[in-house]
Specification:
The protein has one helix spanning 60-63, and strands at residues 14-20, 26-33, 37-38, 46-53, 85-92, 101-102, 105-113, 115-120, 125-129, 133-137, 141-144, 151-159, 163-165, 168-170, 173-174. It has 180 residues and is an all-beta fold.
Length: 180
């Protein structure tokens, strides 16, 4: 992952995080604009890690005020927090196809801009448009931006137990879908 000028024409993500002061009054803890991070070999697709928690339920009285948010992912291993939550957005350039991957997580996704195609390892493709939502339940998939416009998806990832089918655990993977 690298940091450079944002290639996307979509406005960068502004993040406002609230918390409490010592008297218990509501305050704004952070109001900032994040630098885009790039993922993949093309250095075009943009990730904004908006917020992470270390545990569920979250300790929101201490995590927010002590600034323990992780502001970026360093590798695929950091993509999901197995005991906590991750809230991020991902911008896909026109013509982009991600590697097939499966994570041990329950992912809620909302298409915020443009359209994107969700492809599953059985070959099924589903086109999603602005406002459409996906509940991604540990399935092997890739994202394809088959349009000529940039798209942005917002994700909330929750650590989950691995999927077990017929006694076989379906492991996390990145790259080509695993053979059956």
């Amino acid at each position: 992952m690298s940091e450079t000028k944002n290639a996307s024409p979509i406005p960068i993500v502004r993040r406002v995080i609230t918390g409490h002061n010592a008297e218990g009054k509501s305050i704004v803890v952070r109001d900032d604009v994040q630098s885009p991070k790039y993922w993949g070999t093309d250095s075009v697709n943009t990730i904004y890690d908006i917020c992470r928690t270390e545990h569920v339920p979250a300790s929101i009285d201490s995590e927010i005020t002590t600034g323990t948010f992780v502001d970026e992912i360093a590798s695929h291993a950091d993509h999901v927090n197995p005991t906590g939550t991750v809230f991020r957005s991902f911008e896909f350039a026109p013509g982009t196809v991600t590697p097939f991957h499966r994570t041990e997580s329950l992912d809620y996704a909302v298409v915020g801009k443009g359209s994107i195609v969700l492809q599953l390892d059985d070959g099924k493709k589903v086109t999603l448009n602005e406002g459409d939502v996906v509940c991604q339940r540990g399935t092997s998939h890739c994202w394809r931006n088959e349009s000529s416009e940039w798209s942005r998806i917002y994700f909330v990832l929750l650590g989950a137990k691995p999927v077990v089918i017929n006694g076989k655990e379906l492991k996390e993977h990145w790259g080509a879908p695993p053979s059956s």
